[in-house]
Amino acid sequence: MAGKMMQAVWYTCYGGGAAGLKHVETPVPAPGNGEILLKVEAASINPVDWKIQKGMMRPILPRKFPYIPLGDVAGEVVEVGVGVKNFKAGDKIITNLGLAGGGMAEYAVAKETSTIQRPSEVSAADGACLGIAACTALQSLTTVGGLKLDKNEPRSNVLVTAASGGVGHYAVQLAKLGNTHVTATCGARNIEFVKSLGADEVLDYKTPEGAALKSPSGQKYDVVVHCATGIPWSTFEPNLAPTGKVIDITPGPSAFWTLAVNTITFSKKKLQPLLATPTAERLECLAKLVKEGKLKTVIDSSYPLSKAEEAWAKSIEGHATGKVVVEP
Known about the structure:
There is one protein chain. This protein has helices spanning about 45-55, 125-130, 130-145, 165-175, 190-195, 210, 235, 255-265, 280-290, 310-315; strands at about 5-10, 20-25, 35-45, 70-80, 90-95, 105-110, 115, 155-160, 180-185, 200-205, 220-225, 240-250, 270-275, 300-305, 325. By secondary structure, it is α/β, with parallel strands linked by helices. The protein folds into two domains: about 5-130 and about 295-325, Quinone Oxidoreductase, Chain A, domain 1 (Alpha-Beta Complex); about 135-275, Rossmann fold. Helix 8 (about 255-265) links the parallel strand 12 and strand 13 (about 270-275). The longest helix is centred in the middle third of the chain and has 15 residues, at about 130-145. The chain starts with a strand and ends with a strand.
C-alpha cells in the first residue's frame, strides 16, 4: 500500500487532553519483518493512553511526537511482512500494539507475536477491548492472585474495587468462573449492573461501609483486584484473610513503599503492584471465553474516528461503565 494515505488522530506534545488531539492525513504504515498491516475495525481506550499524553511516562513514552495513541485493536489483515507465517490477508484479528500505539487510525501495524485470530462469534468491538483491560483482570486473578478459574477449587473470597469500569467488569466475571465469593465496590448508579455481572455483594463506595471495604457478610478477602485509586493499605489490611493479597493495577509510589514494608516485616498479607502484560496467550484464553459466552464485554459508548475527542474526554472523565470504543 505504498503511497496510500489514511485518516488518523495524533497529538504533538504532552498535555491538552481531548483538545490536544489532531485529525490528520498521513501515509499508511508499512509492515516490517514479523509484522502485520491491518485495517482497524475497532480500538478501545484505556486510562494508560491518556496518562501517556499527560506526561506520566515521560521521557520514556511517547518515543517521539507526533504520536498516534491506542494499543488495543481489532481488524482485518491487509498485508503481511516478511517472515509472518500464521496470518494472511483477509484474516480477522485481535492484537495489542503495545505502548508504541498507532490504533487511533484507519490502518495500523502489529507484531505477529502479539496477534490472534478473532473468532467469528466475537465482534471487532468486543475483541478490541480485551487487550489491556481483560488481560489485566486475568493476570491479577490467576498469575498474581493464584486463583484457578475452576468451580472445583477451594472457595476464595475476592474483592474487586471500581467494579463497573474497564478492568473491574472483567475481573468480576472472571472471578465468578472459579469457586469464589465476590464482593465489589462501585458508585450507587451501577450497583445493579455489577450484580448482573455475578457479584455476590456490592458496596456503594461513597457509604461508610463501602469506604471501609467491609464485606456485608463478614468475608475476609483472599484476593483483592484493586482498580480504584486513593485507598490506603490501612483500609485494606483489616479486611484481608491471613495471607490475603491486594493487587494494585495502577500502582503509585505508595504501593511500592507498602510492598517494601510488607517484605521487611515478613507480613503474610501483601500488596502487590501489577505491571500488566497483554500476551497472545492471554488474548486467546479471553477470546475463547467470549466465544463460549462465559465472558462479555460491556461497551459504555462507541464513537467514529471523526469524534475521537469525545471518546477521549469520556475516558478521562472516569465514569464510563465498561469500555469506550473508537470505530474508524
